[in-house]
Each structure stands twice: as C-alpha cells, then as structure tokens.
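LAB NOTEBOOK - FOLDING QUEUE
OPERATOR: T.R.
BATCH SIZE: 2
PURPOSE: Compare the predicted structure-token outputs for two unrelated chains run back to back under identical settings.
PRIORITY: normal
REVIEWER: second-year student, initials M.K.

ITEM 1
FIELD SEQUENCE / FIELD STRUCTURE:
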Amino acid sequence: MRPPTQPLRLKRSALPGFFHPRLAAAALFGLLASGAPAEADELVSFASAGQGGPIQGYLSRPKGAGPFPAVILLHTCLGLPAERASIGERIAAWGYVALFVDDFATRGLKETCAVDFQPALPNAYGALAYLGRLSYVVPGRIAAVGFSQGADTALKIAAGGAAGFKAAAAFYPPCANVAGAMLDIPTLILVGANDAVTPAADCAGLVKRQAPGVVKFVVYPGAAHAFDLPEFGAGTKVMGMLLAYDRNAAQRSWVELRGFLAARLKR
C-alpha cells in the first residue's frame, strides 16, 4: 500500500455499464462461492530468489491430485489481510493452488508503507520457484495477483519479462511507478475512481500505452483504496491514507478476477 514514487495527480475515470446491487447480489455471491472443495491452508517456507533466507506463505489447494494452475498472492504494505485464509480458500475453490506470500513474518516487519520494499519482487519469484517444484502445480500456468504494494510487484513482474508467469492482476496499484513500461503478459488492473493513494488516472495513462488486448482495466465508481478489504469499514485513515471497503466494488472485482484467471490460466 506504499504510495507511488511519483507525486499523486488528479484522477478521472468512469465505468461503463449498468449495475444494480440488490438485483445482482445473489448472482455475485454464487459466482464468488461456487467451485470445488478446497483443502485447509498450510504454512509453508521457501527461499526468496537471489536473497537467501526463508520466506513463509500460506498454501491453499483444491482437493484432488491435480495438477492445477496456481496463483501467487502478494499483500499490501500493511501485511497480510484479515481475510487471508478466506481469500486463499476462495481461489482454491475456483480450481487453483493459491500461495499467499508473507513478506514480513520472517523479517520481523509490521509494515513497509514509507519505504521502497525491494525484497518484494525476489519474494514473488521465490514463490514461483517453490510452486514449480510441486507435483500438483502446472508450472506454465501461474499468475501473480497483488494488492497495492503487492500490485506494484505484480505490475513489475508484467513489465519485466514475467519469466515463468502467465498473467498478472493488480488491485489498486501505484501505476505511476511503471509509467513508461510496456507490459509483457495479460494484465488485469482494478482501481477505485475515488482512490487518492493510487489514482485511477495514473493507471489509465499506463493502459493507453499498451498494445491492444494486453490489459483489461476496470474502474469502480465511488470506490477508494483497499475497496476489497472489509477490515477498513466505511473508511479508515492509516498513515495518512484513506482506506475504505466498498462491498459492491469488492464483489465485482472478485468476479472480474475469476473470469480473468479462467481465461488466462485454464487453457
């Protein structure tokens, strides 16, 4: 959730299409919850690529022998979300092995919101190498899914050759940090129109520079930073950042992510 290294700019965005929350709520809940049963998550350890030292993560997997495609989840600068276990379970129920990387526990960190957290990218590649050694994972079908600071890492993966990753998804990323980059793999960017931490306008600018079809960009009207995290309620100030849960945006973003992963990993 670290603010971008470039100054924040005014934002403008719009999401086309009609959405009625009361009419759609039941259908959205079904799409989010449906899927195969998942195993309980497991605490695992792996090495950070090029950094040495153990990093821990939480592994969730569908029941069965597989092999399955996989998703590496990358947290915000505030660490693992309160709903970490349910997020992993949800993605496993969709038919993916889910590994939620914990950048902080083995380093004794609580947050990294005021620094440029360099180990994040090696940690993601360490997770990729770990998953590639599991007999029940398809090595060529792994996506990076990040949130804020983790989304910054996901975009850097997409812009850096993405060796071993097939797709990337970024929830409210600081797009200004990769403003001049070209993305090399299919990428999903999800951001709130009222996000004052990582403005939608920065991501709109990034998307315009990409080749057609590489990026799907979705902006949620009225949503702020961390719109998918219920722990922040209707609005919480953390280190000067306004974080606020938006139930409609959260539900729609998970439906969007599920469709994206199915299109990019299950083929």
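ITEM 2
FIELD SEQUENCE / FIELD STRUCTURE:
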Amino acid sequence: MKIMWQSVAPWIGTGYGQQTAMTTRRLRDAGHDVAISAIAGLEGTIGAWEGMTVYPCDSTRFNKLNLRKYVERHSVDGSGEDVQVIALQDVWTWGDTSAMSGGMVADYRGLKLASWCPVDYDPMPINTCQALQAYAARPIAMSRFGEDRMRQRGFDPLYVPHAVETSVLKPKPEAAAEARKAMHVDADAFLVGMVSNNQGIAPSRKAFPEVFHAFSVFQQNHPDAILYLHTDALGLNQGLNLQALWQTYSIPDSAIRTVNQDKYWLGEISAEHMSYMYSALDVLACPSYGEGFGIPIVEAQACGTPVIVTDWTAMTELVGPGWLVDGEPHYAAGSASMWKKPAVSELVDRFEQAYAAKDDPMMSEECRKFALRYDADTVFEEHWIPTLEKLSKPREVAPLPQLNREQRRAKIKAREKEPA
C-alpha cells in the first residue's frame, strides 16, 4: 500500500512525533511505501528519515495547501488515487479559517483520507464531526472512549491505540538511583512528576494550577515531597510561568525540580533518559482536563511507576493500579463541549494514597504488566495490520432508504411550504 502519513515529523520528541516514528517505521518494514507530510518539524525543503521522504510544512502550518501535491508526487500515476492518507492531527483545523489554523479550508476533498483522530472532550465536538463528514474521512479512534463517542455521533470508526516502546521504557532501578542523584533528590524522598506540555492558559488543560495547589497542601504535611516538572518551566510557548505559579502557592524552591530547559527545547532528551526519569518517580501526576490518549500515562507505567489521572475521556481506561480523580465539568467554548476540572481536595487525597504505596513492588509489577498491552509491536500486530486491511477494501456504505409514492409526495409538499 502507498501511504502518506501526515503529522509531526518523526524526529520531534512530542507525543505525535513519537507515534509518527514508531508507526511509519513499522509500516515501512511491513512492505508499505510510506512518505511523511510533516505539519511540524520541517520547513522549506524536502527531507528524509530512515529511507522515507519527508515533505515540509506549508504556509498554512497544517499542509492544508500542499498535502494534495505531496500525495500526487507519491502516487504511481500522479492521480493520488492509489495513496492512502493517514492523518494524526486535530481534524477541526481542516475547516477552520482563522489565522490560528492556517487561514483557509483544507484542500483535501477527494483524497483517500483516514483520520487517527483524538477525542479529548465529552461529547465529541461538533467541529470535529463536521470536518470528518466534509472530507469523507474514515475515523480511527485512538481510545475506546473516543471509539464510543464517535459511534454516538453516527460514525463507524476503526480502533488503534497509541503505543510506547516498552523495550526501552521499562523499570530501571539502578539508573533511577543515579537519576535521583543528578536531580539532587534523596533516595527516600517522595518524588512526584509531571510530564505535560505547558501550552494554553485559559484554562491550562494539563491542570498545572490544580496540581500545584494540591501539592502545596500535601507538601506541608510531607516536607520530604519533591515535585519534578518535565516541561517548559517559563511558559514560552503560550503557556504558564510555572515558577511564578509555584511561588503563588508558596511551594518552596527546594521542593521543585525541573528538566534541563536547554536540552528540553533542543530535543536532546532520549527515550532512554525518559526511562531513567520515570523509574525515579514515585508517582506521575497527569490529571488533565481532557486527553485524546495521554502517552506519558502509559510510559510511566511501562517503567513501573503508578499514575494519578482525571476520571475523564481516554484517561480512565489508561490506568492500571493507579488512582482516578473526580472533578467538576468545565465548558470549553472553543469546542462547545465539556472537559473536567480535577478537584484539588481529591488530588491531595491521591497524593496521600501514593505516598502510602511508595516502593510497593507488586504495584510496580502490575503497572508494567498493564502497560505491555500498549507495546508498539503489539499494537501494530493486533491493531494496525487489521486496520490497514480494512482501509484497503472499498468502504461499505449503507444504501439510502427508498421512499414510496406517498412519502415522496409528502416530501415535495414539505419543500413547497418552506419560505423562499
């Protein structure tokens, strides 16, 4: 099969960049002819990665203008009809004409298009539904939650979860001890981690204010507690100034650790390093307002570290022996749907429960066991292979209902009564 994969470039260490790297590599190795349309990570030139052509981001920032050209280039006869596009991105951008999403409607109509589509609200937002319908895209859900909400909207989705490289992301206790020394964290300290993209302030979807508030309360009773932040600490990418935030909640600087900011921004942090960091944590806090999937949740558990997440969207299904947090509905006006704001009091309680479970070997083993179901090879064999088989076949569409004579007359009369 000829495949045009559209998402973040494979050398970018974000969640979507990681999925691009893992999946396109396996698609290529399975014999498919794969090219990549990069909506981030490459501009102004055609690149290459592991033998695959990588096309650059265009002026719209989402390849709304150039995807068709890339597909035609990748096609045998230039028509593009033999190329399956798989897009891992927010699909609402396709029909949005604001400056934020490229200023134009995407030129995708007529392409053989599948969308590995995040659903991080409940219900599934109308603008996402409209985009899938407008471009006749075959939706691929990345969570069982997303699959269910797509069906509620009348779609017939396929299902492929996101994946992690569990051969790299695994418990490493000796390396974890060294990682703690490098962080200047005592071996017996209680280390809470956040691995979250610091982007957006109204609200902060990753719940930085709620976590900081809860940690400030918890840390007063447990002065051995440390909060590690693997993110942009100053909010330089339209996020929060986290230093100002922890000072607002009176968290002492001595109780905070941050990732090396230069290495973070330069993408110099490897998956191997992440496995050391996750292994060093006692718990990962990821109580987002909503997640399409939530890759760090599975990554941490692959390293034997339990997690605290919000009982909402995809997060609920991604927890092994960890903890769920309830909260209050939060209306997200931009999507006309609902997120959930995690309750600070429940976060404090979950920190206490995680503190009591520190160094529990059985919990660590169960976390690892749970995460293995999302191993990249397992996901490819169990989900991508059957999904590609379905995409290669003509899509079955139910026939339109036939109206009898009386129904046709009633329909004509109804139209005649409509105002001009």
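REVIEWER COMMENT (ITEM 2): The first strand starts at residue 2 and ends at 8.
FOLLOW-UP: none requested
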